[in-house]
Amino acid sequence: MSTSSQPEPVTGSDDASTPPRFGPGRVVQSGLNRSPSSAVAYRLLDLLLGESMRPGDRLPGERALAEELGVGRSAVREAISALEVLGVVETRAGSGTYLRSNTSELLPSTLSWSLLMDQERTSELSVVRGALERSAAQLAALTATDAQKAELAGLVEAQRGAADDPEGYVAADVAFHRVLAQIGGNALVGELLATTRTLLRVWFDRAVDRREDIDRAIAEHELIVEAIASGDAVAAGDAMERHMATAAERILRDSSPES
User: Fold this and answer.
1) Which residues contact 80 (CB under 8 A, 6 or more apart)?
2) How many CA atoms lie within 13 A of 239 on its CB side?
């Protein structure tokens, strides 16, 4: 019986004809424009797809991965966070990061999204999210009750109150967009938006750590709420489109290879 809870050291092969345990070539072609953490995430997927890893196995340590891949430990941490968002791995406090038991079911859908995440794909996903958010804002302007309009305004106030707390702001921002989608009444739009936000979560969390970005986003949210409150679907859609454009700029800024 294998005792695979302690993984083998991460080493390359001496035989140039033998594919590496992990690295470019198994999951994705090399040469794409992706950030260090995205490249690391793909290479971690190479490792997870390899024969040496089994459900429940512990991944090599952060330092070993950073040294093997020639990247900083922060890039490794972000890559692991991305894989954890997707449910591919789980981190156990004081123990390490482990391959989840249902990874064989998760990996095909993960890879089909071409996720984790070269910059081109990040940009494409941001466009999809923008179109869905615009539709949600237009629907909300047509259907929102007075109570729902007040709820949206309250969520903007919650964002303002958390402006100096990036984590608290992210929570209030997510709530705002979730409630807005729910007001529109199209469950599928809401579900698709939840999926796109999850896929962009790693970059989004990084993109709102500057006070000037948070203040700008709050101001954009206020314009969206004003348009919805007046029942103007065109203005609501336009305000959301502008907001999504600046949000995409922030995400792409922080997902670029130079970030």
Assistant:
1) 44, 59, 62, 89, 91, 97
2) 25
Taking the C-alpha atoms of residue 38 and residue 75, their distance in angstroms, rounded to an integer, is 8
User: Tell me, what amino acid is at 212?
Assistant: E
Query: Which of 235, 214, 216 has the alpha carbon at shortest distance from 224?
Result: 235
Round the average pLDDT of the chain to a whole number and report it: 75
Q: pLDDT tens digits, residue range 29-76?
A: 444 445 555 667 777 777 666 666 777 888 888 888 888 777 788 878
C-beta separation of 86 from 79 below 8 A: no
DSSP label of 72? -
Cα separation, 189 vs 181, in Å, equals 7
Q: Is 99 helix (H, G, I), strand (E, B) or coil?
A: strand
Contacts of residue 252, defined as CB under 8 A and 6 or more positions apart, other chains included, come to 119, 122, 123, 126
At 47 the three-state DSSP class reads helix
pTM of the predicted protein model: 0.58
C-beta separation of 217 from 246 below 8 A: yes
